[in-house]
Amino acid sequence: MSSRLSSHVHENQSPDLTKDLKQDGCVQIAIPPRPHEPESMQADPVDYMARAQWLRAVVLGANDGLVSVASLMVGVGAVGQSAKAMLVSGLAGLVAGACSMAIGEFVSVYAQYDIEVAERERRRRDCGSEKEGVKEEEGSLPNPLLAAAASALAFSLGAVLPLLAGAFIRSGGVRVGVVCAVSSLGLAGFGAAGAVLGGANVPNSVLRLLIGGWLAMLVTYGVLRVSGIVFGMHVSSA
After folding, report:
1. Of 16, 183, 178, 14, which is closest to residue 93 (Cα–Cα)?
2. Across 17-21, 48-52, 233-237, which has the greatest mean pLDDT?
3. Residues 70, 182: Cα–Cα separation, whole Å
4. Are strands 26-31 and 6-11 parallel, antiparallel or unpaired?
5. How does strand 21-23 pair with strand 6-11?
6. Closest CA to 176 of 90, 78, 69, 64
């Protein structure tokens, strides 16, 4: 054959996909264009598991601070009408609780730090001279000091709410009610924020924190009230 027949495949962007053209001995075959991926599939999904650790620490710290100090103030209010006594007890609870949270978080995260360091050293020894077989894990080691500071700060932020709520109320009964109401709003806010950031169910999260906080304040108030009646305890500003 004197002439050669060569074929070329081109991507046709026109709507007519069945038209074949013959030009200079070349056959052009029209094929459909490749579909583009939708933007929703190209976007990276939110990694909620990566948020779990720090989100748990923040929500847990703030919730502990609010419930602990509010329950302490409500308990003191059950055996006395002194505003100073309630505020002093709340402030003492804030300082003691923040220190306790910081120390506990420091010890816990430092234990995790030691375990991860020991595991990396063990892998290096097992690897020996064959470095290609073991790949160093990416990501930084946990910081115990940073975790302790964050936990203490979260506790303090939660504890400030009942302190501010009871600082400007003169009547003892009204003060206890205001502390409970403000604490309930704070618990609902913490629960909703944690659920939104963690991709969880908002009503369930809010309800769990509210029930837990109400039980803590109710039990503390009841125990102190009964103890005050039975043992004749009374807290005054004198």
Report:
1. 183
2. 233-237
3. 9
4. parallel
5. unpaired
6. 78
Contact (CB, 8 A) for 209 and 190: yes
Alpha carbon separation from 167 to 54, 59, 84, 124 (Å, rounded):
31, 24, 9, 58
Q: Report d(CA 117, CA 104) in Å as an integer.
A: 20
| CB crowding 176-206: b at 16 or more within 10 Å, else e | bebbbebbbebbbebbebbbeebeeeeeebb
How many Å apart are CA 142 and CA 90, to the nearest integer? Answer: 32
Query: Roughly what angle, to the nearest 10 degrees, separates helices 172-198 and 202-231?
Result: 150
Question: Which pLDDT value is given to residue 9?
Answer: 45
Q: Model-level pTM?
A: 0.71
Q: Which two tokens stand for residue 126?
A: 């097992």
Where does residue 25 fall: left (phi above 0), alpha (psi -120 to 50 degrees), or beta otherwise? left
What are the residues facing 149 on neighbouring strands?
Answer: none
Query: Side chain identity at 175, as an amino acid letter?
Result: R
Q: What is the pLDDT of residue 158?
A: 95
Task: Say if residue 40's pLDDT is above 90.
Answer: no
pLDDT of 98 above 50? yes
* Sheet containing 6-11, strands listed edge to edge, beginning at the edge strand earlier in sequence: 6-11, 26-31, 21-23
Predicted confidence (pLDDT) at residue 97 exceeds the cutoff of 90: yes
- Lookup: tokens for 205: 């999260």
* Residue 160, CA distances (Å) to 100, 157, 228 in order: 16, 5, 27
Whole-number Å distance between alpha carbons of 83 and 77: 8
pLDDT score of 10: 47
Q: Which two tokens stand for residue 153?
A: 């700060």
